[in-house]
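Let us walk through a complete example step by step. Step one is to write down the protein sequence. Step two is to encode the small molecule, flavin mononucleotide, as a SMILES string so that its atoms and bonds are unambiguous. Step three, shown after the inputs, is the structure prediction itself.
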Amino acid sequence: MTIDTQDLTTLDVDASVLAVDGTVADLLFRSARSVNTFTDEPVADEQVQAAYDLLRWGPTAMNASPLRLLLVRSEDARERLAGHMSEGNRDRVLAAPLTIVAAADTDFHEHLGTLVPHLPGARDRFAGDPQARAGMARTSALIQIGYLIVALRAVGLHVGPMGGMDTAGIDAEFFAENGWTALLVLNVGQPSGPDAVRPRAPRLEYSDVATEV
Ligand SMILES: Cc1cc2nc3c(=O)[nH]c(=O)nc-3n(C[C@H](O)[C@H](O)[C@H](O)COP(=O)(O)O)c2cc1C
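Step three: the predicted structure of the complex.
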């Protein structure tokens, strides 16, 4: 179903500058919305894996690939997570068919032997610098979350991202053993209908955000 609430012609760019079909641009960006309420239609692991198999090719610093995903499905896990969400987000987590906690792994250096074969010794260098790892993990995992949102859309799913949460509480609840750091919670599924989204808010113009030197 389409959930767009705005005439796309007002959002259009010149089709001749697009390297992808306009329908692809619409699916990924122009008609895609942040969804608050979902149908009961289940989200299969295969769909999330297909999204991951796209997003993993997006660039990260040193190819460190620090994004980690916790898929929250069971009622028990859902309630544990909801307890750490801000009030307005709590019911959304309880009702969505799938919720993903997107996290950063500050121990990403353990994979550098595989991920950075052209830089032997990278793992050992980062092993001794937890502060650098924390910064790098956060920056690249946040970038990968952007890829994740677009990749989920590319496999036909819709996403409701939520930053309103007690991050330390989620880390203690779910990541005490692996040390991951929660960055964003994403509800995933199919929109429940036209009321699943708020009215589309405007965006800044290119001239508002870009400057040249
Ligand atoms: C990092 C981030 C944090 C967000 N946090 C929340 C949140 O805590 N609660 C909420 O209802 N929406 C949240 N949103 C959704 C935004 O409000 C929404 O993406 C934005 O208004 C654009 O809406 P649109 O994609 O439908 O145009 C968040 C989105 C992002 C990307």
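Step four is interpretation. The pocket of flavin mononucleotide is lined by residues 33-34, 88-89, 161-164, 184, 197, 200-201 (CB under 6 Å).
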